Give the backbone structure.
Amino acid sequence: MKAAERKSSCLEGWVPAGTRIPLRLTRNLEEYCRQVLGVGRFCYNLAVATHRFHRINRLPWPSWQDTYKAFNACKHEDYPFVTKMASRVAEGAFMEFGKAVANWRNPNTKSRVPKFLKRKLTGEGSFRAASGVQQIRYNGKRRARLPVIGFAKLAHTLPKGIYHDAHIRLQNGRWYLCLKYCKEPEARPQPDQRITGAVDSGINPHASDSDGQTYENPKAYYQIERRLRRWQRAQARRQRSSRGWHEAQRRINRCHRRIRGIRQNAVHQMTHTLTRKYHTLVIEDLNVQGMKQGLTPKAQADASMGEIRRQLEYKCNWRHTDVVVAHRFYPISKLCNACQTYNAKIKRERYWTCETCGTRHERNANAAIKLRNLFPKAGGQRSVTGKL
């Protein structure tokens, strides 16, 4: 199957989606996957070295396809250990390098030049397991068949859709199957009785919508921080790669999985409610990386504001909800929604009173109402997504 055919595997009108499911690998499969991780890391580093050589000597930069073709021509003689693995592993590594170069050359992503991947003691990494509709088989229960690996046991059932790409990742001491698939979009409600709304994300509360509903921040990292700090300190005092060191690493991995689970659960529930509630949703364009350079970087990272926007964008695409992104520098938190007075004295106060009309505001709720008022209530083109 050609690459062009794989990209068009989704039916017309269906929407892209993805999922990550824990795997239950046997000991032999886990050993094989660890070997594949090393092969994928070797191919990626080979592409980085080739690209760096051409940059230093001011030669034309080869594409990842050209590098992959040259690698295939000599791999049987120079790298025979690579031939023991599936060919899609090396192809996926070179493809990931091509994406890294594209992100580096894109001024909007602010990515750095691709660097060599290091072999971590925890063994974390990922590799391409399958590519194409014909290579992924699912029995409808908890078994998925992948090339070379065979049947892999899943922690739970897969969502319905057309699966076309699979990666296996080792993260925080656990194996995951990352699937890309296409799903049938949800039916648009007839008549659509949803309203126009807005949401303002923050730290405390996690978010506030224009109807006055607040979503509490679980503060996942602060819940587990004391336990995590304890085991990180214990690991630092033990000999590297010893039995006690790996035991402390297992405890640390468990803490990180707990933090991720609490945070993702809160964000998913909030974005699900918002996309079901509104037919047009106005959000703010936040400089998340810049906000982390302020006085509360740990709290900003724990709030996961970038993840909130990412989930809102793709879930709105599923549920026929239009997204409007307000300008980043519009002073929504300092404008009174009753008399439109700008209050320049506000710094970090959560509650403030307007000096003109005397209305008392909650900072996040006032910002959400101002965002909603930016979008015209009647006669607006709901199919348009852009900045106001």
Q: What stands out?
A: Residues 195-220+271-374 form one domain. DSSP finds ten helices and 14 strands in the chain. Residues 243-277 form the longest helix (35 residues). Confidence is low (pLDDT under 50) at residues 1-8, 377-388.
